[in-house]
Design goal:
The structure is a single chain. The chain is built from 15 helices and 12 strands. By secondary structure, it is α+β, with helices and mostly antiparallel strands. The chain has a domain of 28 residues. Strands 1, 2, 3, 4, 5, 8, 9, 10, 11 and 12 form a 10-stranded mixed beta sheet that branches. A two-stranded antiparallel ribbon has the order 6-7. Helix 2 crosses helix 3.
Length: 465
């Protein structure tokens, strides 16, 4: 029996590494290794490194900064961690959602501030909660097309200082005042101002097409899939507990230390707060009052933070002496009805990306799904496990099947780590890569929902160790 096992090890190793077969005597082979997703004639694209600032609850230590300050810190630390020359990048792409008007192209401002060459183009994308996902896949597309060999992608969100506008009537009056040529015209316009004109327009996490806040949508989705308050609180507690364990165990190695000007050095996410079911049960409904099930405890909180990843062609990465973390393989974007299916992106995206990759759900070793709300995640899991939903809405003969919880978000998720809208995608992909290495898996699946009824999924493959 032992001879047969040795023979199997030997054969597998020789087939994969025939030019250095003798090393089989010294290096173990992973017998559970699956086929690689590498394709003949298709360029391999790799994640070299990923970093992020600590994700902080808005209104805390980052409160006096600006978005580009956080993005700059992420970029600077990416350079430090990789030792990458500042002129070795071909392009920089950043995702953000609520833009600071003074730095509308935050990618460019952050790149200049971080010391990148001013010859490197940079642009900013927005796709709600999957903005940095879009930044990464845009980078993948540019490398695949042969336009670039090395691209930095990332995302940033700063909820501590969102833009607040005057009312539209006040804006029109002020613009007219700026054009008025005579004193009489100015006085006439000033005289037309009423108290109601001073009412500000506050930004809201709401759908323009439905005028419904995302929290309301999450509450309705939870009700539609019979997700109880108890289930939501249990899942939220799970997220915080696992995040705390990962933080204490030093597993969140993508988090960098950041010296906030005039304040302390920040080195940890500050929203990780394991509570108790009893304490969570005391909170009242946050959106659908008084009988809703979505509360502050089972929702992701408003967060400040930035992330950055270095994506390269495998050939370029190896030529520069880098050891990649993972291959970035197939990805898809999906879109549904923004009213009734606003947050079901993962359910629709997961089977599509698996089909593109030629994989089944059982092939996936690591699942990293964005947790906007506990109710949203649990509704997705129930939808994925429903033949009726698959047949009625997805045109499938049978259910997608929900990911097993023993592989799902094991280092916490957005509910506990935080959710800077524009930055979460990079965190998901970097975490998936780190978990694959730590757990010895080969394939990871990242999925997320986004405003507008959109969603994203990507398959990540572990880089050979």
């Amino acid at each position: 029996m032992r001879q047969e096992v040795f023979k199997l090890y030997f054969q597998v190793f020789v087939v994969r590494c025939s030019d250095i077969w003798f090393l089989c005597l010294f290096f173990p082979v992973q017998t559970k290794s699956k086929k690689t997703l590498a394709r003949p004639g298709v360029k391999n694209i790799v994640l070299v490194e990923g970093v992020r600032t600590p994700f902080l609850m808005s209104g805390t230590t980052y409160a006096d900064l600006m978005p580009h300050d956080l993005a700059r810190a992420a970029l600077q630390n990416l350079l430090r961690r990789t030792g990458l020359p500042k002129d070795a990048v071909d392009y920089i792409i950043y995702g953000t959602v609520i833009q600071e008007v003074k730095t509308s192209n935050v990618a460019r401002e952050a790149a200049l501030g971080a010391g990148f060459s001013d010859k490197i183009p940079a642009h900013t994308v927005t796709m709600a909660c999957i903005s940095s996902n879009q930044a990464m896949t845009s980078a993948v597309g540019m490398i695949a097309a042969g336009q670039c060999d090395a691209v930095v992608a990332g995302g940033v969100e700063f909820m501590s200082d969102v833009p607040i506008r005057h009312s539209r009537k006040m804006r029109k009056t002020m613009l007219s005042l700026n054009k008025a040529k005579t004193l009489g015209q100015r006085l006439s316009l000033i005289g037309s101002i009423r108290m109601a004109h001073f009412a500000p327009e506050l930004p809201a996490v709401a759908e323009f097409s439905t005028a419904e806040t995302m929290g309301h949508s999450a509450d309705r989705l939870a009700a539609a899939f019979a997700v109880s308050r108890l289930e939501q609180d249990e899942f939220a507690l799970r997220s915080h507990t696992l995040a705390k364990k990962a933080q204490d165990g030093g597993l969140l190695e993508d988090v960098i230390s950041f010296k906030v000007p005039g304040r302390d050095i920040v080195s940890k996410d500050n929203g990780i707060r394991p509570s108790s079911m009893e304490q969570m049960g005391k909170l009242k409904a946050a959106f659908v009052k008084p009988h809703g099930t979505v509360t502050a405890a089972n929702s992701s909180f408003l967060t400040d933070g930035a992330s950055a990843v270095l994506i390269m062609s495998e050939e370029k990465a190896l030529a520069m002496g880098f050891k990649p973390k993972a291959y970035l393989r197939d990805f898809v974007y999906v879109s549904q009805d923004p009213k009734d299916q606003l947050l079901l992106g993962p359910t629709y995206a997961t089977p599509k990306v698996l089909e593109r990759a030629g994989l089944s759900l059982s092939d996936i070793d690591v699942f990293e799904f964005h947790e906007a709300f506990a109710g949203q995640i649990l509704a997705n899991l129930k939808a994925m496990d429903s033949d009726w939903f698959a047949q009625t809405y997805m045109g499938r003969k049978s259910k997608v099947v929900a990911p097993p919880m023993e592989k799902f978000n094991l280092w916490g998720g957005s509910l506990s780590l935080g959710h800077p809208f524009g930055a979460t995608g990079c965190r998901l992909v970097t975490t998936a890569a780190h978990r694959l290495k730590k757990e010895g898996g080969q394939y990871g699946l990242v999925a997320a929902c986004a405003a507008g009824g959109q969603g994203h999924a990507m398959v990540v493959e572990a880089y050979p160790q």
